[in-house]
C-alpha cells in the first residue's frame, strides 16, 4: 500500500494542526498554509506513515493468523485480537483475564516472521502472565524468536532517531 499517491492541501483556515485521510485512493493531507516547509515535511511524513500502517493493517487477518499459531505451538487462542493505533511503546499487549490481544499497527509492514513472533509472545501470555522461565520456554518454541527480537530491537532504534 506504499503506492498510494499523496496530495497536500494547504488551507488558510487551518491554523495549527494537520489532518490526513484516504480519499478516492489518495492520501490527502490538510496543512496550515503558513506552516514552515521543513516542519510541514516532517509532520506530513509522520502522518502519511501512520495512514499507510492503518491501510496495511487492514490487509492482515490477525484472528486467522493467531489461531493458526496457537494450534501450531499448542497455545491458547485469544477470544479477541485487534490492531491498535494507540500502542506507541509496545509491540503488543494482552489481557489474559479477557483473552484479548492488541497488536501495534506499527507491525503491519514488518516481515511475517516478526509479526508471528509478537503474536506467539502475546499468545503465550494467555497461558503464563509474566516473563519468567515458563513463559520463555513457550515463546522459545518459535524457531525464529531470536531473529525477530533482533529485528524489533533495530526497528526500535530506528524509530527513536
Task: List its traits.
161 residues; alpha/beta; Zincin-like; 2 domains; three-stranded mixed sheet; 6 strands; 20% strand
Structural summary, described in words:
The protein is an alpha/beta fold. It has 5 helices and 6 strands. It folds into 2 domains: 6-57, no CATH class; 62-159, Zincin-like. Helix 2 crosses helix 3 and helix 3 packs across helix 5. The longest helix has 21 residues, at 37-57. The model has no long low-confidence stretch (mean pLDDT 88).
| Beta-strand content estimate | 15-25%
**Intertermini distance:** 24 Å
CATH architecture of the largest domain: 2-Layer Sandwich
Helix fraction, binned, reads 40-55%
What's the total number of strands? 6
Report the radius of gyration as a whole number of Å: 19 Å
* Largest sheet properties: 3 strands, mixed
Amino acid at each position: 500500500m506504499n503506492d498510494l499517491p499523496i496530495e497536500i492541501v494547504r488551507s488558510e483556515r487551518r491554523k495549527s494542526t494537520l489532518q490526513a485521510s484516504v480519499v478516492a485512493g489518495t492520501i490527502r493531507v490538510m496543512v496550515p498554509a503558513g506552516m514552515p516547509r521543513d516542519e510541514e515535511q516532517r509532520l506530513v511524513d509522520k502522518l502519511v506513515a501512520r495512514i499507510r500502517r492503518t491501510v496495511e493493517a487492514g490487509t492482515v487477518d490477525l484472528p486467522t493468523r493467531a489461531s493458526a499459531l496457537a494450534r501450531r505451538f499448542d497455545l491458547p487462542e485469544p477470544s479477541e485480537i485487534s490492531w491498535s493505533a494507540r500502542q506507541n511503546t509496545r509491540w503488543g499487549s494482552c489481557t489474559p483475564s479477557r483473552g484479548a490481544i492488541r497488536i501495534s499497527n506499527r507491525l503491519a509492514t514488518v516481515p511475517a516472521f516478526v509479526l508471528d513472533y509478537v503474536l506467539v509472545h502475546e499468545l503465550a501470555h494467555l497461558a503464563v502472565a509474566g516473563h519468567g522461565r515458563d513463559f520463555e520456554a513457550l515463546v522459545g518454541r518459535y524457531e525464529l524468536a531470536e531473529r525477530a527480537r533482533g529485528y524489533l530491537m533495530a526497528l526500535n532504534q530506528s524509530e527513536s532517531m
